[in-house]
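Per reviewer request, we include the raw input and output of the structure prediction for the construct analysed in the revised manuscript.
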Amino acid sequence: MVSVMDLPEEEFIFPGTRACAGCGMALIYRIALKALGPKTIITVPASCLTVLHGMQGFCSTKISVYHTPFATTGASASGILASLEDKGLADEITVLAFAGDGGTTDIGIQALSGAAERETNFIYACYDNEAYMNTGVQRSGSTPLGVQTTTTPEGKLGHKKNMPKILEAHGIPYVATGNAAYPLDLFEKFKKAKDIKGSKYIHILSPCPPGWGYEPKDTILIGRLANETGFWPLYEVVNGLFELSKSSKRYLDSSKRKPISEYLKVQKRFKSIDEKTVKIYETYISNMWKEIQKRLKTT
């Protein structure tokens, strides 16, 4: 089990980035780079992470970053890996694709699916802030039910896309979920993914103060509520075997989960939902955990 003492002291992101105060993605990125180390090449599409890296001609990381068009992250990762293989460096350097939910669940899904189908030896991490935040908070395929965005002013219809399941259906060796509020769990999952051959996918909840409507100081609180209410279970699927992460195991007992209303009421993006929608959420979470229980029994 990873402890704080296991985290490397070296930082791979310089201070003074252009990320928003309280940005969940910035925390995720920091932990991921600590886990993977300096022998990493990163490819990033248009996203909030592009903003964090800085203006043209500058980059806020010590690690090489390739900025690519919105739709091509999986393809660019494949190209980087092919170049490393040609130079005999593929076993020494980790290729990391790091994209938001818009560039993963929507615009980038074709390139990601193709890379996974080709069994590209890379890690693809999606930091999921559940909308297109960098361009003005438009809904994405990962936006949850009832959320107000600039393109769903009365609340989004329908639940978010289950991207981890889609990647699991590709038969890749490693799929995991993460949460910015659980950095040690994240560190451990990136370390594990680094040592597995083939395509690895980590889908990480990334609370966003301006897009979700809460105070920057509450990012960890919001992230933990997502787990504690059962809305965002933490798990791994290793070679088809499903396992709940330690932080989520206790929530197999529904009596230990906090009411989903506690998570919804502290975010302005959910301000238009009514009791009927809350009930839909309760059913959604209950059904999700029933499926998790079934999967645990069969593995």
